[in-house]
Amino acid sequence: MCGIVGYVGARSAQDVVIEGLRRMEYRGYDSAGIALVADGTLAVDKRAGKLANLEKAIDERALPASTIGIGHTRWATHGAPTDVNAHPHLGSHGRLAVVHNGIIENFAALRDRIEDEGITVVSETDTEIAAHLLELQLESGEDLTTAMQRVCSRLEGAFTLVAVDAQDPDRVVAARRNSPLVVGLGEGENFLGSDVAAFIEHTREALELGQDQVVTITREGVEVTGFDGSPAEGKQYHVDWDLSAAEKDGHDWFMRKEIFEQPRAVADSLLGRMGADGLLQLDEVRLSDDELRDIDKIIIIACGTSFYAGMVAKYAIEHWCRIPVEVELASEFRYRDPILNYSTLVVAISQSGETADTLQAIRHARVQKSKVLAICNTNGSTIPRESDAVIYTHAGPEIGVASTKGFLTQLVACYLLALYLAQVKGTRYGDEIHQIVRQLEAMPAHIQDVLDRADEVYALAREYVDATSVLFLGRHAGYPVALEGALKLKELAYLHAEGFAAGELKHGPIALVDEGLPVLCVVPSRGRDQLHDKMVSGIQEVRARGARTLCLAEVGDTAIEPYADVLFRLPKVPTLLQPLVATVPLQLFACELATAKGHDVDQPRNLAKSVTVE
Ligand code: M6R
């Protein structure tokens, strides 16, 4: 949700913090703020709106030189995005500054106690309560580390807190519970960030923290404890991507850059999956083959785009492994009392690995004794850490709020999972598995072929800059693609867009069809003739009612020609793998349409990249 940065070292803390916030801004961009420790006081500035507003304010009124500081970019939960509610928040004597990601659930009770002590709370945030509590501890004579331990023990909810004390120019102290925080390890300097992008230009050595831990960074080192003060240890790791991966590389948007990275991302996702023994292998498996053979039901849980990847996975797993699969929104999962046991495999799909709805769902599953396998793009994030097995998607950092390469690589991971289960359970012969892996290995070239014709899609998208509604139709594995196409358009172009299973149209949604309504149709490959023909019938039905049909169909599909007002050709691939190519034009369409409308494609209104609150 929010992005957090902390620094202590020898460089200008202002530069390090602002640069870190720039890379964290995708996490939230309602307001931004900074606090530096200089000459025994705190220098603070914070502004509603994007980081640019804060930078402008600092340009006009310079902050003092400092080598220690914290910063924050916010996605509002408590209180509107105003200057007052922006972080950092200060204690009432201006000694302590804190930034926060998450929600402090018992803040109302804590606020009453603070007000009873005569302290005036000036913002509407839960964070300010933590600031007052921390400052009270400091004023009772404790150092910032001890103050943080004490205060965190009293907080309920999910939070990352990062704080500085005006009277202690040598340490930044942070804490986490169910909210992301990583440490960047430097020479004579150390960093804190919501993710490694915050400090990737300075160091690629990072330290992963556990739950309920407090970390103190100084110029000399890093110390980790539990909330109770007991010594603890983080897990050090090397980040396998660098600064260039976090830059736009000449594109106008991160999203566009990430769309064009997909051939490489999909290829990377497939790398090293086949062992010397000719068998598929996953990244981390803490499950035996026997345990996997006992699996008799799979439940896939995820949110948003990741949920649509899960829908595609259902088709692949059921077809290749003959195991029943349910796909469920993570936010609904634990509230319906799902039937789970040791022979249920729960698959959690999450690009960020920090989505609170998904995290809570896997925790519920584990309490019910189910095994959990994560499909995730973010090394060291919470969801894979709390899972029994992991397939990393290896897409590299995804900065655009709208998921693109994250989705395609999730699809690859889902196919690999299905094939891995087929291998372990023996539901497919080895040569069949190898053949599908070879088809997957051909996908980067097919995706590149679609990208090479991006201009066709751009021209089409610009025609619809004044559209008020767009429908998307698909069937089978094309149905989740239709849903994903609609989601992309909603979140980026802010227009009414809906995806439907084409067969459902006649049961109601066809009433939406009006003269000139654009309907994007994902036509299945012809190998499944019945499916293909039924889709063509659906397209005829909407066209007969005045819709303008914009069809994605494979090369050589002539049956669609009479019914397509616009035809974009897809490479010829198996139906089950078609989402890997059919999604790409829909991503390009949404990106270009939103650009033509003058929207901020990387930071759409009201959204945040990583949703760490339920
Ligand atoms: O990080 P996750 O994959 O768990 O995120 C899930 C959704 O929040 C995410 O896919 C969201 O729907 C994207 N903005 C879609 O583009």
UniProtKB/TrEMBL annotation:
Residues 288-427, 460-604 form the SIS domain. Homodimer. GO terms for molecular function: carbohydrate derivative binding; glutamine-fructose-6-phosphate transaminase (isomerizing) activity. It is an enzyme of class 2 (transferase). The gene is glmS. GO terms for biological process: amino sugar biosynthetic process; carbohydrate metabolic process; fructose 6-phosphate metabolic process; protein N-linked glycosylation; UDP-N-acetylglucosamine metabolic process. This is Glutamine--fructose-6-phosphate aminotransferase [isomerizing]. SUPFAM superfamilies: N-terminal nucleophile aminohydrolases (Ntn hydrolases), SIS domain. One of its GO terms (cellular component) is cytosol. It holds the Pfam family SIS. It catalyses: D-fructose 6-phosphate + L-glutamine = D-glucosamine 6-phosphate + L-glutamate.
